[in-house]
Amino acid sequence: MYHIMKEVHVTTGQIAYAPARAERNLLTSDSVAGIGGLTFLILIVFQNVLRFLTSPANDASPNQLLQFAHDQAWTVRLLVVTYIIGYPALLLFAAGLANRFERAEPRAAIWGELGRMSVIVIAVFFAFVNLLDVLLVAGRTQLANDPNLTSMIWMLHNAIFTINLLAVAGGLLGLGWGAAMSGLISHRFGWACVAGAVLLGVAASPMVTEIHGSPFLGIGLLGYLCWILFLLVTSLRLLGTGENERVDQP
Asked: Distances from the Cα of 117 to the Cαs of 112, 140, 144, 174, 190, in angstroms?
């Protein structure tokens, strides 16, 4: 019969050997942030496609708005559900990034705070956008007798949607430059995030014109695509790198 020794005597003394345990925490703050970022990304792409296909134009008439409230009510209900799931995920993403910035590069902490606060503003603004959509659907019978109020609700909807571009710009600027400073993304990509934030800010500037529909909003398209790309790249980096590991590749 074999006997497995748990202790080995050597000339320097007695050493007790214990079975090695390989422990790995899969749910680190970085991985949670990465999962949150990818979740939000999937939902925001879905939301934008759905709004593009079904939502009325900025200059829609009261009759068109009421038609939307009757025919596309299901999309409003679905967008509310995606909001409820998506924005906690975005807040986790921003909080995890800001936490990483503080650990990896203290000078990036202020940029992380800018990004985190901007993300909170995004969540608040989009809550109001969804509430106004809900108001159109829930009050469609009463609004049928008040076309002026219907138009006012839609103009307020468009104004909030437009000014939200500034909040997205703040999120992209803060989180993008902080990620570059902390080594999560390259400085070249970081500068692209800065440029995207500027484009978003410029696109939101002529707000009075854009409430009724303006091609000027197209200027912010590149900036918004930069935001989408940032969410994708950074989320994957958070999932694929170790704690505080720098990734200096574009």
From this structure: 9, 35, 39, 9, 19
